[in-house]
Design goal:
single chain, 327 residues, alpha+beta, five-stranded antiparallel sheet, 5 helices, 16% helix, membrane, DUF4179 domain-containing protein, transmembrane, transmembrane helix
Length: 327
């Protein structure tokens, strides 16, 4: 086996990749420089020998460099994704423990294997293929899993035609950029069902920056980010009508029929601005004849009722947060 001095002698002419430096990941300049150094050795070039004794000869330098590259990989420095380029110097695929991403036609398709990973693991994968995408999974109810809750687009936009492989042309578009999410198999629960993967698609030609909030399955006891979707189809208060307000006793009975426990918040309306504020209330302070104006889903099995002690002239959630009553 080679000793340390001999390996150092082989590494000296190569570009270095130092672990922990910003450019040490697969898409960094350091890793690319190392790859360029290795590629620059032409087959059949002059052999270089290193001797420990006058008679001891070593393999040609290209083979030696191959051994050095293997040693670098064994040491934990990842250069593999940079080898899978698309002809423009950009990695066509990348994988880590959280997700894998690869170019498929005019899109990059990201498959999220671990929905509970730190968001930096997803961002690292997108950056490795040249996309400035920050993906932040947030806890949601089962109905919100795999859905884009919001995206902030800055800088450039997609410079090419819309992807021809877009699975849902009516899906979300943010500043003209088609982003789509789904699960494989369809409607499975990532983080719960074995083999369930979240899939995100983004145009390969996109040149700007995207900050995406993506719904993931909430852990037991974890509060939902999509708290204001309680009355949406498939959510815990699906079908409940509160636009005109309803008595607390009536809404509590509905919650119990659905196997839900309830908490309360007092709604205060600023007379000058119309702005709303909320004050948590103990159950014992809420009368059965108070009025419920809206409901938020807190976490699995828990609904929050937003109430006032008096009946207001109109629902303070005038922005349409509650669906209108059925005609």
């Amino acid at each position: 086996m080679r000793n340390t001095d001999e390996i150092n002698e082989l590494l000296r002419p190569l570009s270095r990749v130092e672990p922990g430096r910003p450019d040490s990941h697969a898409a960094g300049t350091g890793a690319r420089a190392l790859l360029t150094s290795i590629r620059s050795e032409e087959p059949g070039g002059p052999a270089r020998t290193i001797t420990r004794t006058p008679a001891a000869k070593r393999p040609p330098r290209r083979l030696a460099l191959g051994l050095v590259a293997a040693s670098v990989l064994a040491a934990g420095i990842v250069v593999g994704p940079s080898l899978l380029e698309d002809g423009r110097g950009v990695a066509a695929s990348y994988a880590n423990s959280a997700m894998e991403i690869r170019r498929e036609g005019d899109q990059y398709v990201a498959r999220i294997k671990d929905p509970f990973a730190e968001h930096s693991a997803y961002t690292q994968a997108f950056h490795a293929v040249g996309l400035n995408v920050s993906l932040r999974p947030v806890p949601v109810s089962p109905g919100g899993v795999g859905k884009i809750l919001g995206a902030i687009i800055t800088g450039g936009k997609s410079s090419g035609p819309d992807p021809t492989t877009e699975p849902d042309p009516s899906g979300p578009r943010f500043d003209g950029v088609p982003l789509s999410m789904g699960t494989t198999p369809k409607d499975c629960q990532p983080g719960q069902d074995a083999g369930c993967v979240m899939v995100m698609r983004i145009p390969a030609a996109f040149t700007g920056q995207v900050d995406v909030r993506l719904g993931r399955q909430a852990r037991p006891g974890e509060e939902y980010t999509n708290f204001d979707s309680a009355m949406a189809p498939g959510e815990m208060f699906d079908g409940v009508r509160l636009r005109n307000g309803r008595p607390v006793a009536d809404v509590l009975a509905e919650a119990r029929r659905r196997g839900l426990s309830a908490t309360f918040s007092l709604v205060r309306v600023d007379a000058a601005t119309g702005g709303l504020s909320f004050e948590p209330l103990p159950d014992g302070q809420v009368g059965p004849d108070w009025t419920v104006w809206n409901a938020w889903q807190v976490k699995a099995g828990v609904i929050r009722l937003l109430v006032t002690s008096e009946r207001l002239p109109e629902n303070p959630f005038y922005n349409g947060s509650a669906p209108p009553p059925a005609s």
